[in-house]
Specification:
heterodimer; A: about 350 residues; Ribosomal Protein L22, Chain A; 7-stranded mixed beta sheet; 15 strands; B: about 140 residues; mainly alpha; Non-ribosomal Peptide Synthetase Peptidyl Carrier Protein, Chain A; 2 domains; 6 helices; P-Pant_transferase_sf (chain A); 4-PPantetheinyl_Trfase_dom_sf (chain A)
């Protein structure tokens, strides 16, 4: 189902406001009082917050965004710092990609309104101690949103933003056909854990080995991003991701199998002080061209998780978007498949 | 910021702001306690980097490796201060660049090293230091 929306030129009247904070305040108050200002954010259809054990996965394909007018609209919702960073990038495609990434984050978060419409421009971001961007909720005056967690990832051909409530989230996307400049095994020897090296070594076919490598890479990246520490604070050698064979061809049977041991697990190689059993993964194949990994923290009070046999599947809502233009809900079909992890592609609201 | 010194490789996944001016923007937007601590770390890590200036040949070799890894067209501009992320390097590219540097210079870069490698110059400075440490140890 596609939802089309059209933004108008009225948003430009706010461009000359002196301070961002004043503008955010005015916008918020304006809409709360029900005055009929048409702004950029009014063309973002509101979306219900993700529930527990639910992940919203939004993505944009840069090739689908061609209009200069639209790109300018995206530029308008960025902070001065973000704009400056984008202007420093010389190459056009990279500039566009960076712009789309920021616009995707801001517009996605702005959809989760409760009482008042949120101007995507009014979000402030900060970084945790390791550099992971987070929303600075302290600067959100009138909003009554629960703390949303988000994470983005981009390749040249796909930019994604994952959203969760009540759990940190990490995502990573990679082109399936991405080539390494180095030899895969040499790379794995340097950076991966012994078990992962062994797994890759046992795959003889170079194409299959590359695909398995990409899957492992995205899962490991998603994990360290969910941890909030990134690569340098969680060296890839210090933990092992195990990816067991997913039940192929049994997608329908999965609906009836509620309690199941997850087929993607992570465990520390050495450090036993940080138990990793709380993290859950989903691995997707998107549009036949990309692998996407999602990592969230398992809800410790989820009764299903105490059974020892497994837990409830994660509901993943997948949406392809062109912010301000259209959103398309992607359901399980040839263009989106869950290939790992205990998850199902949920129907959008 | 503390984050600058801790994340040697992981700037791309976190869409890190790359220039000094941009870092200044971030400094003003975070809460007071956090920024005070991180500001000190930024100063000291930057000082450490500046204390070892790389040879021009080292810088050139790093440029070559970066160009090759990112498949940059020959006419594209690559200066010592160009940020890898601004060249379109993602996390996998960055790690591959590090691997290429390790092989070229015979060094090992620890992931949890305190240096921040986000430009050619920073990579070259770190390499110079590691090469010096290595020859001092042997």
């Amino acid at each position: 189902m596609k939802i089309h929306s059209v933004s108008t030129r009225y948003s430009w009247s706010f461009v000359c406001m002196t301070s961002l904070r004043d503008r955010a305040q005015l916008m918020t108050n304006t809409r709360c009082f029900g005055r009929n200002f048409v702004t950029a954010s009014s063309s973002l259809p509101p979306v219900q917050l993700p529930a527990q054990r639910e992940v919203h996965f939004w993505y944009v394909l840069p090739d689908e965004v061609k209009s200069t007018n639209l790109l300018n609209q995206y530029l308008e919702i960025l902070s001065p710092c973000e704009k400056e960073e984008i202007f420093r990038i010389r190459e056009e495609q990279l500039k566009k990609s960076a712009l789309l990434a920021r616009a995707l984050v801001r517009t996605t978060l702005a959809r989760y309104q409760t009482k008042c419409q949120i101007d995507p421009k009014s979000f402030k971001f900060k970084k945790n101690n390791y550099g992971k961007p987070e929303v600075d909720w302290q600067s959100a005056d009138d909003w009554s949103l629960p703390p949303l967690h988000f994470n983005i990832s981009h390749t040249s051909s796909l930019i994604a933003c994952g959203v969760a409530v009540g759990s940190p989230i990490g995502i990573d996307v990679e082109e399936k056909q991405r080539r390494l400049k180095n030899d895969i095994l040499a790379f794995a020897q340097r950076f991966f854990s012994p078990h992962e090296i062994e797994t890759l070594t046992h795959i003889a076919d170079p194409e299959l080995r590359l695909q398995e490598f990409i899957k492992l890479w995205t899962l490991k990246e998603a994990y360290v991003k969910a941890l909030g520490k990134g690569f340098s604070a969680s060296p890839f050698k210090t933990f092992t991701v195990r990816l067991r064979d997913h039940m192929k061809g049994d997608i329908h049977a999965l609906r009836h199998v509620i309690y199941k041991a997850p087929d993607i697990t992570v465990e520390p190689s050495v450090d036993l002080k940080n138990p990793s059993s709380n993290w859950e993964f989903v691995l997707l194949e998107l549009a036949g061209s990309h692998y996407a990994a999602v990592c969230i923290e398992q809800d410790s009070i989820d009764p299903g998780s105490k059974s020892g046999n497994g837990s409830m599947p994660i509901n993943l809502t997948l949406r392809k978007t062109i912010p301000f233009v259209e959103d398309e809900c992607i359901s399980a079909n040839d263009s989106a498949v869950v290939i790992g992890g205990l998850a199902r592609l949920a129907v959008c609201d | 910021m503390a984050s600058v010194s801790a994340t040697s490789f992981s700037f791309q996944p976190f869409l890190k702001l790359s220039t000094r001016t941009s870092q200044a923007c971030y400094r003003t937007s975070v809460c007071v306690g956090w920024s005070r601590k991180s500001f000190t770390s930024l100063r000291s890590s930057r000082f450490r980097i500046c204390a070892v200036q790389a040879q021009p040949e080292t810088v050139q070799k790093v440029c070559d490796i970066v160009r090759k890894q990112l498949a940059l067209p020959p006419e594209s501009e690559l200066t010592p201060d160009t940020k890898f992320s601004a060249l379109g390097a993602d996390s996998l590219d960055t790690v591959e660049i590090v691997m290429g540097l390790e092989e070229e210079f015979g060094i090992t870069v620890e992931e949890d090293g305190s240096q921040n490698i986000s430009t050619v110059q920073e990579a070259a400075d770190l390499i110079e230091k590691l090469v010096q440490d290595k020859s001092a140890a042997s």
